[in-house]
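Human: Respectfully, please carefully check these tokens:
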Amino acid sequence: MKMFQSYLSGIRCPGIRRAFRRCAMNGGEGPNSYARNSSDQKGVVDVAKPIIEEEISRKLDIKHFSSTFRVADFGCSTGHNSFAAMQIITEAVRRRFEIEGLVSQIPDFHVFFNDKVTNDFNTLFNSLPSQRLYYAAGVPGSFHGRLLPKAALDFAYSSCAFNWLSEVPKAVLDNTSPAWNRGNIHYMGARKEVCEEYANHYAKDIKSFLDSRAEEMVPGGLMTLLVPAVPAFWDPDPAYTTTTELYLFGSCFMDMAKEGRFSEEKVDSFNIPVYLAIPQELKAIIERNDKYTIERMEVLDSPGRRNLTGPRDRAAYFRAASEGMMADHFGSEIIEELFDRYTKKLAGSPLFSDPDCDKSIMIFVLLHRKPESYCYGS
């Protein structure tokens, strides 16, 4: 199979105080890499597999496809979980042609792997499965904007990426704003104004994503989204989610600031660009977009973080996803101490050290790209 390699390693994410952006996941194959610390995300793909296969067999209209079937994974990271998803999708499409008696018309498959320009595409392409159905190419750039030509995609996919904002809302870093998030690194536990800024930014980001994909997808194409979220009425007192875990992590920063490792102002100028919606909130955002119909939306029977068996695993999971932006803002010399403190705090709390207490959820969404005439009434 042909392969187009990308050589975008070694690009450092620039530090941005007023609108802090996330960096890519940790690259490589080392102990702190995303490749070695993403079993939770792999569990989500495994649970979604039969649903994706079922929906492709029922909803994919194969009568109007050309000789090439194009798939994109938006937020692919270093590929280990992406490869599994791309195998599920391409094999399900191939089976659909076989069942319809159209073996001679099975198309070539072309997969676009997308992530931030700082993503370790070298590791991704060096790890491509030798036995695969598709040709591969890398598409670096933010998925909140256009990345591909018009009507270039038949199937869009994204997993565990929608919770990352394009940037931290500017108001939460502005000490003249009512939403200034002083002393915190996240909206959880913050004032209502901070939460609203995060929620509004999330809605704008999802709209930008959907509008961009609407341009890139063929009419009738399908999109599968696996979206980290929280229950509609979760209570952070008897239970916890990723967001309250971030509150615990933020206390590590404040402890270090009080000990003089860096200033409290340094903490005030840093927030983590992560937002977890409730299902109704996500559904409302999607429904406001007139370019899609929601074919299926449900909470997955997910293993959650049961693959993370202890405090060290949980801290390593978070480090693999967030180390780049923290090192960029605070300096790489504090990272070991920071995550050592975090591991100890997790170990000291029976609540946080037990994966079964995690009440965060994963939402499966299947969208159908409406025909242009249906969207615009022409």
